[in-house]
Amino acid sequence: MTREPYPTARREDIIDELHGTPVPDPYRWLEDPDSPETKGWLLAQSELFSRSRGPQRFKSRIAELLRSGSVGVPAWRGERYFFSRRTPDQEHAVYYVVEADGTERALIDPMAIDPSGLTTLDAVQPDKEGRLLAYQLSVGGNEESVLYIMDVATGVRVEGPIDRCRYSPVAWLPGGEAFYYVRRLPSTEVPENESQFHRRVYLHRVGTSTEDDVMIFGQGLKMTNYYGVGVSRDGRWLQVSAHEGTAPRNDLWVADLTASPADRPDLRVVQEGVDAQAGLVFGRDGRLYVHTDRDASRGRVCVTDPAEPGYDTWRELIPEDPEAVLNDFAILDDLERPVLLVGWTRHAISELTLHDLETGERLGEVPTPGLGSIGGIAERPEGGHEAWFGYTDNTTPPTIQRYDARTGETTLWAASPGAVEVPDVRTEQVVYRSADGTDVRMLVISPPGEASGPRPTILYGYGGFGISMTPGYSASILAWVEAGGVYAIANLRGGGEEGEQWHRDGMLGNKQNVFDDFHAAAEHLIATGVTTAGQLGISGGSNGGLLVGAALTQRPDLYAAVVCSAPLLDMVRYELFGLGATWNVEYGSADDPEQFGWLWGYSPYHHVKEGVEYPATLFTVFQSDTRVHPLHAWKMCAALQHATASDRPVLLRNETEVGHGARSVSRSVDLSADTLTFLAAHTGL
């Protein structure tokens, strides 16, 4: 089959010399999204994609499976609680409050705010009494959150808009009169290319102008820092944390707000300059609980006195497990023997254990609904004997489970509201060996019954930032497997499935391990008869887009088709765009000679070679993406279209008015249908 000619993309003779290495960049002109030439090329690519896409085979089934809806873990404030739910016909989840008598009211409905579906609810935080609600909205996928305050009883907006609040935590003081939050400096006060950075922690008093907000932290620190802030339930203790970009380490301080004023807190060091992460929970018993990977790659819990919070005072309560990663915990203290409910993942599968709150002694396991994922363990802030947590697995839409420590029972508290007939699938976790002999795990989801020869297969991976790939309900996966395919998810190094060391074994100078783990996953699927190279498609987004970009340039023979979504691909210049400067702690910086060597060694854009038969490739990018600029995919698409010796197509799906994160259901359905249709066409499903 002869493919259509590709739109013309001018090649420039641009070569930068970095640390003695000539670095060609023939498509740098595509970095300017506003130039007429770029716009013309994008229009031609969109027309080519439209002519090539064919009928969306899976669209109706994906939409049907997404009619399950969803439900979120409750946040309790006294007898009132808050939660999110999406019903079968809703484009976005709605945020609700439920009163003590069971009366339910919608507080924030993104579609009521904006019927176009382009507005998303990014974050919510009720005050300590449940009377006021801080919430953050953004439009068109840009994730530039604007902060508002609502009176919960009336639903009336009492504060806002407060802009420049992207990724801002909100920490209320008791009484709802003031809160700490994080806001970027105005663009007029920073260099033009640094407006995404320069965050500070402020104290805001409700009803006053933000001009009167007091900056309490961040001045003089690194421009790429992210800050966390929290206040204990009794209002006595303030905690502030600082991460340099996405680094797997943080500095931590606490202040006693009874001994220093809220607008000038006397912050004392918990940890500073330490290559480890720690999170703090102020217990109702007066103790400070520290969840940390310091001296414990898989995590542990220590306790100390918040008045003397330094490392030398920490006492280990829950030690590191040799196999399971400690993710979360809740304190249940309205009992004769107070306990700690601890959430773990063992090789990416969740489990819960119960421990004595004073000694840490393990008292037993807590029943969970199956082999799946648990998230967001919640307790009553004032104490109690109950905990709520989210649960999902490959065939179970999100549910909320309630654990009662008095009876020891786990029961279904809330299910996703839509009744959906979910296909029967078989899920198996396999272990395979990577290039350096490391054992890696992979979840393989296939049609039920005995395998009848190799099948068209999608291999998915991420492998970065300590993010774990755990089981979860996915309409796309179920639609693919129901149609006769296999879907495999590899738990690559760079993720957090085996703890922080597993992450570090796949970051910075170890990044090639991630790609080796992925190639080895593909080879295992082929060697065990699950699929063949001609039936194997790969898929990844964001850092996973970098993964599949490296995979297709390093082993084009191994894959028949690639879907590369919102990717990083020019690893020499990635720091110059979007939030790239916050990721050099994960990847390295091209400014450093050694780190440039790592990046240059795998940068997909720079490893496209003329005359190679590349797999069929679909780039999916989002014009409003402020995290990963779509220029990465644009440049790589042009390079591949120029270089490939294959008749298999290289296509670009460039979508407007959406970004890197949340989107409406109908937009998600469209994207999933296009990607599965493309993979099916080129793997033979």
From TrEMBL:
Q: Tell me if Transcription is a UniProt keyword of this record.
A: no
Report the family membership: Belongs to the peptidase S9A family.
In what residue span(s) does the Peptidase S9 prolyl oligopeptidase catalytic domain sit? 476-684
Which keywords has UniProt assigned to this entry? Hydrolase, Protease, Serine protease
What's its EC?
Answer: 3.4.21.26
One Pfam match: Peptidase_S9_N
| Protein name as annotated | prolyl oligopeptidase
Q: Which organism is it from?
A: Nonomuraea bangladeshensis
Q: What class of enzyme is it?
A: hydrolase
Q: Which SUPFAM superfamilies does the record cross-reference, listed alphabetically?
A: alpha/beta-Hydrolases (SSF53474), Peptidase/esterase 'gauge' domain (SSF50993)
**Per its UniProt record, what PANTHER family does this chain match?**
PROLYL ENDOPEPTIDASE
Boundaries of every Peptidase S9A N-terminal domain copy: 7-414
